[in-house]
Amino acid sequence: MFQWLSNWILDGLKHSPEILLFLSLSLGYLIGGIRIGKFQLGGVAGSLLVAVALSVFGVTVDAGVKAVLFALFIYAVGFESGPQFFRSLGVKTLREIFLALFIAVAGFVTVVVLAKLFHLDKGLAAGLAAGGLTQSAIMGTASDALTQLGLSPEELSRLQGNVTIGYAVTYIFGSLGAIIVCVNILPKIMGREINDDAIKAEAEQLHGSLLLGSGQNFALSDVTGRLYRITNKVNQTVESLEKVINGISIERIKRGNRIIEATPETLLKAKDIILVVGHRDAMISATDLLGEEVNSAQGMDVVMNTQDVEMRNTRYVGQNLTQVLSSDEVMKLKHGIYLIAVHRDGQPLPLNNDMVFKLGDVITIYGTDGDLRRVVDRIGAPITKSEKTDWIFHGLGLVVGLIIGLIVIRVSDIPITLGAGGGALLSGLLFGWYRSLHQTVGNIPTGAVQLLKDFGLAGFVAVVGLSSGLQAINTIKDQGLSLFLIGVVVTLLPMLLGIYFGKYVLGYKNSAVFAGALAGSRSANPAFGEVLNKAGNSTPTNSFAITYALANVFLTLLGPLVVAFV
């Protein structure tokens, strides 16, 4: 009976490998959430370990699934960070270049020294570099370099097989070790927590403004509404009163039991109840001028809305806030409309008199539906908030990224390519930047972006664990732990040296930015995912994007170099 049940389960898993994939995610996040002191493995690393354990079932997941999941993850990361990435490019990125180069050189020296100390052949050494540094492209460049040595077919086959063995044994800890270094060790050496520094960096980007999360609102809103009973300003028109108290608008009037339309020419009479909407500072002065405040009045509720509009009116472009608000056209339009915020490249701008409008700025205005409709077309194009994803835009973005990943440039017979991951990242950055300039296309809800990142990365490492875990376990059984332990050193030593190099030579102060750069320098995508989780925002992404692109080139070059020097 037990044998029959075991065979039934195993046969079912072989036909439905997705069961193990989702089981890896579920148990992985459960284990990853366990905290021992200040150490926490995290969901991505937990999913990897559980997947390795479940690989004993011998169930394989199609490699195409891994490619799709990783493409979704890395594209979403790039799209979310595109505006900030291109804005941050400049002299400051030199330290990311030096860090990526340092990690590549340190990794190369570590592999060569250990290979000579432990008498590893060229194949095992190259596999050690590919797995310990989690750069699969090294396998390809190393295997190609081996074919140039004039070896016999048997020897060439043996060495190329050893590349795969070295990779399989060391890749699992290559991913796990990078997570531990970036998320747990780096903050201790820096003496600063990733989350704290991520919040600090975000505050600096926002010019001191607070970024509200979902469901959050300020206790003291800038625009508010109040009811007043007229006692002072009797027989004045709505228009004249609004001019006396700058920054308010009278939206509704109740006279006795009747609701009266609040036109500019409407005369206000004693005991009229008026609904006044305006900026908080203006409302404070209105109390003394209008009369007593009323708690409530039937029929005086008015629905107000917020609308984002993309600036397209060239008449206002290049003018500062004072010039725009004081223009004749705007003076006629702005009754009942309040400027709440202006965003550029996803970042809020300070609403001071010197702020200059540019094409593509996102203007957030507040008012009744009627007032909003009257104004929106004069500014530009309304940005419709939707829970749907623009897959025309993002499907094209993924296609472009994957095509970029197919491009191979040969330098002295060494193939240089960004690969699918690098291509999807670059495309995500470009499409995210384009979306910031043209807000009417490319919509994707924030929750959808987060799902793509979480599921994409955790699913990717789970597929890696299910596919390579059993081979690594069997190789360790056959050859002992020596190669695995050598791989541990290859994974940890360059990164630890990189932390001290980055801290004392390159001058990294912010641990969130540094952790992103370090993960990218090692092309350690699982580590980057955990860094993002710790940060709680996208602060680490800019530095990661730069070093990740460089690492794809620098680390790929190690394949033929290891073959040449071992």
UniProtKB/TrEMBL annotation:
It comes from Gilliamella apicola. This is Aspartate-alanine antiporter. PROSITE patterns: RCK_C (PS51202). The chain crosses the membrane at residues 20-36, 48-77, 97-117, 163-186, 391-409, 415-434, 480-501, 544-565. GO terms for molecular function: monoatomic cation transmembrane transporter activity. It is found in: Cell membrane. Pfam families: Asp-Al_Ex, TrkA_C. Belongs to the AAE transporter (TC 2.A.81) family. The keyword Nucleotidyltransferase does not apply.
